[in-house]
């Protein structure tokens, strides 16, 4: 909802997913993607420590998507 924009709820949710993925499930890497024009999504991923990896064409409509990755190693260093 637009009324919740700017409340950093997406950041809270993403941090919870990363914590669960790395600390509970023991995943070595978590990836995320966003539409090429979604600057707010890009800023969120950068803010929590994701690193840009590459662009892909996704789906039957071949939408250009920016792909990002966070490794468990980076997560642990940045979230001590």
Can you offer a commentary on this structure?
By secondary structure, the chain is of the alpha+beta class. The chain is 41% helix and 30% strand. The protein is built from 3 helices and 3 strands, in the order αβαββα. A 3-stranded antiparallel sheet has the order 1-3-2. Strand 2 and strand 3 (63-71) form a beta hairpin. The longest helix is centred in the N-terminal third of the chain and has 16 residues, at 9-24. The protein starts with 8 loop residues before the first helix and ends with a helix.
Briefly summarize what is shown.
With 80 residues, this protein is α+β, with helices and mostly antiparallel strands. It is 41% helix and 30% strand. It has helices at 9-24, 39-48, 72-78, and strands spanning 29-35, 51-58, 63-71.
Could you outline the blueprint of secondary structure elements for this entry?
Elements: H1 9-24, E1 29-35, H2 39-48, E2 51-58, E3 63-71, H3 72-78
Antiparallel strand pairs: 1-3, 2-3
Rg from alpha-carbon coordinates: 13 Å
Give the DSSP E fraction (strand runs of 2 or more residues): 25-35%
Order of helices and strands: HEHEEH
Sheet of most strands = 3 strands, antiparallel
Key attributes of the depicted protein:
80 residues, alpha+beta, three-stranded antiparallel sheet, 30% strand, globular
């Amino acid at each position: 909802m637009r009324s919740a924009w700017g409340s950093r709820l997406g950041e809270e949710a993403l941090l919870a997913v990363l914590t669960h993925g790395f600390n509970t499930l023991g995943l070595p890497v978590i990836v995320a993607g966003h539409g090429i024009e979604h600057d707010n999504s890009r800023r969120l991923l950068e803010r929590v420590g994701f690193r840009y990896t590459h662009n892909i064409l996704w789906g039957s409509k071949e939408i250009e998507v920016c792909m990002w990755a966070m490794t468990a190693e980076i997560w642990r260093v940045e979230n001590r």
